[in-house]
Amino acid sequence: MSHGTRISARFRSCCRSLYRWKDPLIVVLIPLLLLPLPLVVESKVAKGAYVVILMGTFWVLEVIPIAVTSLIPIFLFPVLGIMSAREVCFNYAEDTVMLFLGSLIVAVAVEKCNLHRRIALRALTLVGPEPRWLLFGIMFPCWFLSMWMSNTATAAMMLPILNAILKQIRDVTLPDIEEAHHSGEDGIDDDNDVDIAAALSGISMERLPLKSKARIQTETIGYTLKTRAEKERDFHELTKIFALSISYAANAGGVATLTGTPPNIILKGHIDKLYRRYDLDPGLTFANWLIFGLPTSLCVFLMTWLWLQLWYLRKRFLCCIKDKRSWDAVKIHLRMEYTSLGSMTFSEVVVAVCFILLGVLWITRDPQFIHGWGVLFPKGFVKDSTPAIFISAIMFVLPAYPPRCCRAKHDKDPKLPVTATETKLLPHKGFTPLLTWKTVNEEIAWDVVLLMGGGFAMSDGCTKSGLSDWIGTKLEVLGSLSPWVISFILALVVAAVTNITSNSATATIFLPIAADLALRLQINPMYLMIPVAVSASFAYLLPVGTPPNAIVFSSGYLQTRDMLKIGIVVNVLAVLILVFMSCTLAVAAYGLNSFPLAFQGHTNTTLNGTTILPIISLRNSSI
Fold this sequence. Notes:
Keywords: Membrane, Transmembrane, Transmembrane helix, Transport. GO terms for molecular function: succinate transmembrane transporter activity. The chain crosses the membrane at residues 21-41, 53-80, 92-110, 133-162, 241-266, 286-308, 341-365, 385-402, 477-497, 526-546, 566-592. It is a multi-pass membrane protein. This protein is 68% helix and 0% strand. It is built from 29 helices and no strands. It is mainly alpha-helical. Helix 4 runs antiparallel to helix 6, helix 24 crosses helix 26 and helix 26 (503-520) packs antiparallel against helix 27 (525-535).
């Protein structure tokens, strides 16, 4: 081996070693490289920027767990003199964090009793056998369930169901492909194909010359291979569309409710903190979020459903597919799967009742247009977190199975068959609650809970250090644009960034910037904050964008270029729908066409006026 070759080999070995140690190296180098910022500038703004850049880098690169990064403010803010430890720690137990925690615990109960699978299979059995309706049957339960539970859990639950559907589709639509291995190298019976071709043409094979017989044989074989290849391509295209439908529906569904996705919860936390600072009540509740969130989510859901059909069916998009003989077999298979679940178990009924009760309590607490049950208590004492924690707490007390004296005959007699779910939930002795802390502790996404607390702490630090004001000053150049244009630009930037970073981290970083920019431009803060938060859930381009994307990508049905080609249109259309709904429906629902008087003293600005004109009207040169 020559001297140059040895040096090259050592260099490659050194690079591989550095790559394996890249995470700890980044953890050490980034703080050291940023250290001149607080040491040289010596201002609170620089110190706040140091923490924000450090946390943002760690969140994006995920060199240490996201939850650990979220704890950085607890020791850095006090050390740098930005906030006291007591002030920082208050952010980790915000009312909004408890609301999210309560909704997660209820979702764990739904998963544990398998209620979500029953809902999904029931929806699939109700749809028609055509591809477009089967696609709808896959997407709708994903969309609905992700409103109430983790979109990650929803996607993970739907993937095995999708695998079974696709296997059934392949078995009934591509039987010749499976039989190809048993009839030669290419699976074609040459003599049989030639006989069929001749019979169709009305010519006797015996009268054909040798050259004509060879030509017919070649053309027939080529046609058969082409037909099978087309069927294979069509099936592979179908697998891509069905796989993407799961992640698209799960991402869209979380937008509908305030607890459906972490960015929505983070938005509520930021708005509550901002408005409390000026002794105002934002009035953003679970009930009135549905006025904006549900229609927006539904429009995005229907748009993705139509786009996936258009991509798969192409020119057949407006046609009705009548190949019911093949697709009916898929529907029969789904009915058999649903029937195998048996009747609802006791635990499913109890969880369903608690689930519905929680939704009713959320909606009726403060529905705005009438007095809810919240008026029975002193103002500000009861929030949406109250029923969330109440329902999640009683699930640790409610039984998972009825008392022995109240059980059905087949539950008492071990000789009679019971379903797999009943077997798990019907022990022979003692009391078993619906939930145990061990189960919850294993299933709860504690990293997201800490991420929310860390985000609120970072936002507080940005405000008290003056960093938000400094950034807002630099962004005042956007004041010459219409408010809806600013909203569209911010939403588009966030939708692009969230494809490569955590949606929670993206919302946490951009929401304080949007809030301060709105105050400086004398725009209602919610006018910019709502599009920023919701667009953080629109990650349709890359597998790393959101956990549902990663789950469907891991199935092997997709490649990155498939997600990019199909998702780019979805991403842009989703942002356009969001901005339109924000500038019309949200403005009407939350009164965003006026700038609250309490915010007038936030900053001195050369911009005048307090009214945001609708998106469809002309706007004067100043706001």
